[in-house]
Design a protein that fits this description.
Elements lengths: L2 H8 L21 H32 L16 H30 L6 E8 L2 E6 L4 E4 L1 E5 L3 E8 L4 E5 L4 E5 L5 E6 L4 E7 L11 E7 L1 H13 L9 H9 L22 H6 L11 H4 L10 H9 L22 H12 L1 H4 L17
Parallel strand pairs: 1-5, 4-10
Antiparallel strand pairs: 1-2, 2-3, 5-8, 6-7, 6-9, 9-10
Helix pairs in contact: 2-3, 5-9
Bound molecules: heme C and copper (II) ion (CU).
Heme C binds next to α6 and α8.
Length: 364
């Protein structure tokens, strides 16, 4: 879009569902318009005063420039009319901005009755969205119905995060040990970006998610399917499911290409574990813990422990910063992750790109 036409279109951003402009992303929720009206109003006021002040400045600079060496003294010290004008005018403007802004703000703060509720958990560095109505969980993805008010009830597991969906014009801090909420009603089908907008550490910039707005009559069926998709899967189907649906919870700390991140890479993990070649900060080695009379009689148990009780053994060279997935992953999902480790070379290429879809078909 060329700059001039986008600036001009921005000056009139007051219709619902306005497309992207030079200043603002497209409007895709019911509150977007009132936010943009406030923005446009303040913007217009700024343009007006910028033009007025700069023209006066240039005009006075020219008109009163020094033309002789005669000293001029005793200018006016006081002008009641001007002083009243420059006090009352800004006061009126600020009142107008307040009234316009407040209307949108109240709208944003008060969720309507009967919202569809989603519970949001933020943690370094991912978003988990639970749909209690359906028992379904999404990670790094949030599916919402079109035209239905949705309320997000949010909390954080570690530190301050902030949830922001620019196209919906909603943003709210997510705080550990406390709930915050926000609501929106999507007005357009499509996929929208969700960001963390509170600097929360090393991978803050990767703490992203996609919001999928789908037709309201397809929503229930989609959620029911999501909640139970792994239940009837056979063991052969689990690896493709795990890499597509579960790995996004691990992605922020574990790579697939062998590179060290916050945690050890998943590449080659099964071979290391199976051979007992994992050293711990305690000085022990995994192979020392193997044996027929120990909990790690089969190496799979070590992976299970790593996921449910990650502080139990800390891998050498890493900090114990992995959160527990106790209560978040069902037994069959843990099995799916273990199967994913065992079959990782059929699921990813050399560079660690995922090459299968959820249903096991090759990914283009
Ligand atoms: C916040 C970062 C973080 C997230 C998210 C995370 N991990 Fe970890 N993980 C670590 C760190 C750090 C270690 C190494 C220290 C330790 O052993 O606790 C680790 C270790 C492991 C190990 C042991 C690795 C080895 O080489 O012995 C396994 C298995 C594991 N994670 C699986 C997972 C799975 C599966 C997920 C997702 C469901 C996940 N992790 C999510 C940080 C994370
Ligand atoms: Cu964050």
């Amino acid at each position: 879009m060329n700059l001039m036409s986008s600036i001009i279109s921005n000056l009139f951003v007051t219709t619902v569902g306005n497309p992207e402009t030079f200043w603002l992303p497209e409007q895709a929720s019911t509150v977007a318009q009132s936010v943009d009206v406030t923005f446009a109003l303040i913007n217009w006021i700024c343009y007006f005063f910028f033009a007025a002040i700069v023209s006066a400045l240039v005009y006075f600079a020219v008109k009163y420039r020094r033309t002789s060496h005669v000293m001029v003294t005793d200018g006016p010290t006081h002008n009641t009319t001007i002083e009243i004008v420059w006090t009352v005018l800004p006061l009126l403007l600020v009142i107008v901005i307040f009234v316009v802004g407040m209307r949108g703000y109240l709208d944003l703060m008060e969720a309507p009755e009967g919202c569809y509720e989603v519970q949001v958990t933020a943690q370094k560095w991912s978003w988990t969205f639970d749909h209690p109505t359906y028992g379904a969980t999404e990670v790094a993805e949030l599916t919402v119905p079109l035209g239905v008010p949705v309320r997000l009830l949010m909390t954080s597991k570690d530190l301050l995060h902030s949830l922001w969906i620019p196209s919906f014009r909603v943003k709210m801090d997510v705080i550990p040990g406390r709930y915050t909420s926000l609501w929106f009603e999507a007005t357009k089908l499509g996929v929208y970006q969700l960001n963390c907008t509170e600097y929360c550490g090393k991978d803050h910039s990767k703490m992203l998610a996609k919001v999928h707005v789908i037709p309201a009559d397809e929503f229930a069926a989609r959620m029911v399917k999501l909640a139970s998709e792994y239940v009837d899967m056979s063991i052969e189907q689990l690896p493709a499911y795990a890499i597509n649906r579960l790995y996004n919870r691990c992605q922020s700390c574990h790579t697939l290409d062998g590179a060290k991140s916050t945690g050890p890479s998943f590449k080659g993990l099964w071979d290391r574990v199976n051979a007992g070649q994992v050293g711990f900060t305690s000085g022990e080695k995994l192979s020392d813990l193997f044996g027929s009379n120990t909990v790690y009689g089969v190496p799979e148990n070590y992976i299970r422990t790593s996921i449910l009780d990650p502080q139990k053994h800390i891998v050498k060279g890493f900090l114990g910063s992995m959160p527990s997935f106790q209560g978040q992953l069902k037994d069959k999902q843990i099995t799916a992750i273990i199967e994913m480790f065992k079959n990782l070379d059929t699921l990813t290429d050399e560079e660690g790109n995922i090459i299968v879809n959820r249903d096991g078909t090759p990914r283009e």
